[in-house]
Here is the input.
Amino acid sequence: MNLPEMFGENVFNDSVQKDTLPSEVYKALRATIESGKQLDVNIAGAVASAMKKWAISKGATHYTHWFQPLTGLTAEKHDSFIEPEGDKVIMRLTGKSLIIGESDASSFPSGGSRATYMARGYTAWDPTSPAFVKEGTLYIPTVFVSYTGETLDKKAPLLRSMTALDKQAKRILKLFGIECKKVSTTVGPEQEYFLIDEEEYLKRKDLMLTGRTLFGAPVTRGQELEDHYFGTIKPKIGEFMRDLDKELWSYGVLSKTKHNEVAPAQHEMAPVFSTSNVAVDGNMLTMELMKKVAHKHGLACLLHEKPFRGINGSGKHNNWSMSTDSGLNLLNPCDCPEENTLFKLVLAAIVKAVDEYQGVMRASIASAGNDHRLGADEAPPAIMSVYLGDQLGALVDSIVKGENYKSVKAEEGGIGVPESPIFPKDATDRNRTSPFAFTGNKFEFRMLGSQANVSDANICLNTIVADAFSDFADELEGKKDIEKAANAVIARELKKHYRIIFNLDGYGPEWEAEAARRGLLNNKNTADAVPVLYQDKNIDVFVRQGVYTRAEAIARADIRLENYTKIINIEALTMIEMAKRDIIPAVSDFVAELCQNVASKRAVSEKVPCNAEIKLIDKLSQLNDTASAAVEKLEGDLKSVDRREVLSASQSMAHLIIPDMEAVRAIVDEMETLTSADYWPYPTYFDLLYSVK
Here is the structure.
């Protein structure tokens, strides 16, 4: 395999564009991509023609506008290139077909912004994300809007948020005499996942229908020995990873790192960062390919945040930064951050944004699956905070306290062995317990769930930081002494928002108490986290930056709660079916066999000991009756939930149905430990987690 040659071979990327497009068309398209200039629709025909020819050479017969509706997934409708010409056909893709498509908008979530009888929706080409060929179809990345212009997807607001940050960041840079064409946000989403044997997966209704195990007694060996993390990769897993890399590389996805994660059967893939919308497209494609490649290897890829209780769940760390087209990273503190006023101002803006909109950031990553993961001694808590590390923490402390900064410099060291190389000692450490941690020249937003579309979190980040930049620029533009005025703003804002900075252990109960004293939010479930999105202050920031209209903002909050309610409803119904049809009858059958054993023994002699069987019969009979009653309660409570009003329905799911489900699970999991494996109807945690040899 010649990796440099095959990388991006299925992508209509810059090099292909340069080779296939007329020079003037190529220059116009690159100006749109690189500088954010308005797309010249007059070039669409030439681009479409070249794109079609290239796609056909790759075996494509169809094209599709590939978009990201508010389901959190991707969507596609395939049309062939063929057009009739007499009694024959020709292969054609027009400029109009490239730029605009039409899809049924009524079948996707809209948060009430569209009536179900109103079908028309449009897809519009995103030229900044390259098209690609997959399985005989040309995929054209697009946005998705209604016929009246409301956004119905996750990409359009992401692009708007990138535009907003670009605009406001350039105002900040101009204050310091720095001109540039474009400020881009970049993202590197690390993808965690589980791999289990597909045959075992297909035996679990809960995994198939909900993505997680609704029942399951703890495995006797989980992650206690900490030997799976970075451990030797099993041959079958290695084959999967190699094939996945090849697939990803062929589509231009910068897959860089692969390793075992903490939990048994858990792994991670990390890409090199790229521009936010391209990174999102790449991650959506990554999740799709993970499942397809896994199937080829007889495996099932689990992307749920918490497929197994009691062991680490899966997240998707979002490495976020800002850079100019000339290569200036706005989050690079340089060697002397205390002298870098621009960096300090950018840092103050981010601290201000996270503090003022901590609820919005928490809501941006809220989901039914992620609720099980956050705060579970494996992921950041549901409390937003900013980690700066020793170096920047000391700098901020000196600014807030009005003291001289004592530099925390990186040193060099070794391990005391002459043969060992000298390596740099970092001036700070990484904090894996922080939800939003500075990691050298970027921030790592660690709260995202593994199956999330990362657009939501990045729309939020881009928007709130753009708003903080706007506030600072409004105040500083026209000031004669920018350094003095900027440092005054930095000191004021860091003092005002100092409460959001926390550089210690976020896992401990002490932090919860401390966060409460600081007045920080701690919304532990989606039903409690999302309602902040209805507050005027939190709607206005998106409206002000041109990311959402008021109606679009409210619609997205509605959809997030609707989705949460639907997921919990599906989980509850699945749990009821598994318990009533499979588990309770299986336990009854096992108890019946025990009774027969006792009867057989007693038939031989009344003196034959049967205490073990009798105790087990009594215990399981009681548990089975209790389980049956708990299931009946869950079923009754579920029927009582009025799902027509999203706020009240989500609250009922969070505070009534989930506790009911927990009660059923506790009983069933105990019964699993007492029931013969021959009778238990589902693969156990051991069967699943250690299924790949």
Q: What stands out?
A: The chain has a mean pLDDT of 93. Residues 154-187+316-411+422-548 form one domain.
